[in-house]
Design goal:
Layout (H helix, E strand, L loop, with lengths): L4 H14 L6 H18 L10 E3 L2 E3 L1 H7 L13 E4 L7 E4 L8 H14 L4 H9 L2 H4 L2 H6 L8 H10 L5 H4 L2
Antiparallel strand pairs: 1-2, 3-4
Helix pairs in contact: 1-2, 1-4, 2-4, 2-5, 2-8
Length: about 170
């Protein structure tokens, strides 16, 4: 089952805070990328619905970027509340707190060890790692020129990581 990237991001931050491990916005973006890669390889399907774009510092989910950019390079200290607008015809707006059960329990059990492993790497270590992937390197000249909105193709991601399992070995214990 695929989730909204913001829900997965909020869960990653929640988990990091619960386990006392600091997490930065830069780490969060790369963790989402790696969680997606593992899901594509192990489960044959996406973990997140949203597109992942190729930015100068590697993979980024734009919606998550905009939600968490207020933290800059500082550790994220809380899961931001989300503005929810009613689906009916009545103008109703509320701020909703994150609820971890928006991510199913079996999914949480699957991704928790991955999150824990990835949190052992700094944001810039994760950037270096993602910059080694041909998926990013192939578009590096365009990215460096400032061309925006270059998306990772999820089928290409799956094929790349199946062919290059060593790139995920540190997460898959292979």
């Amino acid at each position: 089952m695929a989730y909204r990237a913001l829900d997965v991001a909020n869960y990653v931050v929640h988990h990091a805070l619960e386990t006392g491990k600091p997490i930065t916005h830069l780490q969060l973006q790369k963790i989402l990328y790696y969680l997606e890669a593992v899901s594509l390889v192990k489960n044959g399907e996406s973990l997140i619905n949203d597109d992942i774009e190729k930015w100068k510092l590697g993979p980024v989910v734009p919606e998550v970027y905009h939600q968490y950019k207020v933290f800059g390079s500082n550790p994220i200290s809380y899961v931001p509340k989300e503005l929810k607008i009613s689906d009916d015809n009545i103008f109703d707006v509320e701020l909703k707190e994150f609820q971890e059960d928006v991510i199913h329990e079996e999914t949480r059990k699957e991704i928790n060890p991955l999150i824990d492993k990835l949190l052992n790497y700094s944001g810039f270590q994760l950037v270096e790692m993602t910059h080694q992937h041909d998926l990013w390197k192939d578009d590096a000249p365009k990215i460096q020129e400032g061309i925006q909105y270059i998306k990772y193709n999820k089928n290409d991601m799956r094929e790349y990581f199946i062919k290059n399992k060593d790139e995920l070995g540190f997460l898959l214990n292979e």
